[in-house]
Amino acid sequence: MPSFIYNGNIIEYSLTRNAKKNVNFRIKGDGTVCISAPKRISNKELQNMIKDKAEWIITNQNNIMQKQHNSIDKKITSGSYMILNGNKYIIRIISGKENSVYFHEKLLTIQIKEKYIFNQDYINRFFEKWIRETIYYLCNQLIDRYLIKLNKYHLKKPELSIRNMTSRWGSCIPANNKIIISKNLIYPPFKCLEYVVLHELSHLIEPNHSQKFYNIIAEIMPDWKERKKVLNEF
Ligand SMILES: [Zn+2]
Asked: Which fold has domain 120-233?
């Protein structure tokens, strides 16, 4: 998929050429940008039009993904469900000495200090923090693991940031040696998180989605297409 970088955001798009008069931009439910353009418009003209439209694209992607994640991020209450790592869990909230999260079979137990047990806002914030810390911890380990596998490229360990990204799962700013991963990767199977971390790390070697870029990924993760598909469908 062709892409370009705008303000540190990697925007990927699909392009179809047709006989219509105008260039048309559409954002699909998964956040992908679909562009259809008349044949008479040159690639260079089109690139400029896409850049002019970048702000609009990012805003719309954010709106779409926000809507979707609002439905995932439901209230953290006893008896409600949540999908983590691709598995469905029933939430149970109990009170205890310390705040903690643990799993047992299909049960996700969130233990909250007694004085906050009826404070929904506090519970939400605690769980949100737990998600960010968990994703950070996992990503950090994955980065170390993949850096060893990518050692022939002599990469310096990038700065890692976890954000509530709503339109993308990750992004990379090669110039700052920085990768940004969406906290929402806590929901799909972790093999998707592995793919996104490797994808963003590979951008430190190859900023574009070139064949060379995908070759780097495939060398380490031969089943990356399958993982990407799972993520797109999530
Ligand atoms: Zn990419």
From this structure: Zincin-like (3.30.2010)
Q: Is the pTM of this model over 0.90?
A: no
CA of 127 to the centre of ligand 1 (A): 29
Q: How far is the CA of 208 from the centre of ligand 1 (A)?
A: 7
Task: Tell me how far the alpha carbon of residue 199 lies from the centroid of ligand 1, in angstroms.
Answer: 6
Q: Could you state, in order of their start, the residue ranges of all structural domains in the chain?
A: 3-72, 120-233
Map tokens 């205890």 to a residue.
Answer: 96
Q: Check residues 65 and 189 and name the one with the higher pLDDT.
A: 189
- pLDDT tens-digit readout, 158-191: 999 999 887 789 999 999 999 999 999 999 999 9
Cα 147 to ligand 1 centroid, rounded to whole Å: 17
User: In sequence order, what DSSP letters do the residues of 126-141 get, joined into one string?
Assistant: HHHHHHHHHHHHHHHH
Distance between Cα 203 and ligand 1 center (Å): 7
The strand pairing partners of 81, in sequence order, are 90
Please name the helix (run of DSSP H) or strand (run of DSSP E) that holds residue 17, with its range, or none: strand 9-18
Q: pLDDT digits over 5-50, tens only?
A: 777 777 778 888 888 888 898 887 767 788 999 988 888 888 888 8
